[in-house]
């Protein structure tokens, strides 16, 4: 290579380096996904490795939207919440003399939950409540449903057991278990899924306590066997779900991973959570490239055919700096 050729090559290399630097500085790329969300199987749906029918004795197969029945239960609870709450301690002890009205309301709530439990599927967030989502792990509409079912677990179930109405108690807790399963199966939103998981744990504890005290030990052990198997599977599910949530637990969120989940996760729960997280990404000192990418994805999901993805995008777009400042490091 002569001197002139060497100079030309050197100039070309310099121009390449300058071009790369300029691209990085003037036209930077948005963050890419890290190995945390790029590993094989990360985007697969996390399932419970057990069948609800093993606990229920059958598979709910009704054609109604279970949410229609659950919403009736929610409405009764909301209208009578103060009175029901005030009666809780006495009813748990089986003291019902002064609480005929409250007990009637609880039994009516239970009847609606039982009807919902017979259905194959539930669509709650897309059918009832405000029709909106919040940039948060927690949703008001989920709280309304979850607290209504919790009331059955914490008041009516213990009341029936205290009165030794074990058959009725068992039926109630089986309905509650099915309702928790609906909340998980809906794959709608993180808190809904976690509430469903907790409800199923509590329901299985109630089913166990509903076995009459004079039941033969071997028979009782046989009755509890499906519960033990499902509890182990539910524990594994809880562990895997909690681990995946770590992406969204600490600010600033890894933008590339959030977008990767939003676009590619097979579980709608995580897609919705990632879209909601984009609302927070707007205010976490992102690069210009990240801001552009984040804005474009929010706009993309505003046109999603999935109503929950669209609702999440609407919440992310509306999320403001005052909202972010008020939330601090939690959401």
Main structural class: mainly alpha
Q: What value does the Rg take, in angstroms?
A: 26 Å
What is the count of structural domains?
A: 2
Oligomer: single chain
Cα shape: elongated
Distance between the termini: 63 Å
Low-pLDDT stretches are 18-25
Helix content: 55-70%
**Strand-residue fraction?**
under 5%
* Sheet of most strands: 2 strands, parallel
Number of alpha- plus pi-helical segments: 15
- Average of pLDDT: 92
N to C succession of SSEs = HHHEHHHEHHHHHHHHH
Per DSSP E runs of 2 or more residues, the count of β-strands stands at 2
Spatial arrangement of strands, main beta sheet: 1-2
Explained architecture:
This protein has helices at residues 3-26, 35-38, 52-56, 66-79, 81-92, 100-117, 140-162, 166-185, 190-209, 217-244, 255-264, 268-281, 288-302, 307-318, 321-327; strands at residues 62-65, 119-121. The chain folds into 2 domains: 35-44 and 250-327, no CATH class; 60-245, no CATH class. It has a two-stranded parallel ribbon with strand order 1-2. The chain is mostly helical and 331 residues long. Helix 8 packs antiparallel against helix 9 (190-209) and helix 12 (268-281) packs across helix 13. Residues 18-25 have low confidence and may be disordered.
Layout of SSEs?
Layout lengths: L2 H24 L8 H4 L13 H5 L5 E4 H14 L1 H12 L7 H18 L1 E3 L18 H23 L3 H20 L4 H20 L7 H28 L10 H10 L3 H14 L6 H15 L4 H12 L2 H7 L4
Parallel strand pairs: 1-2
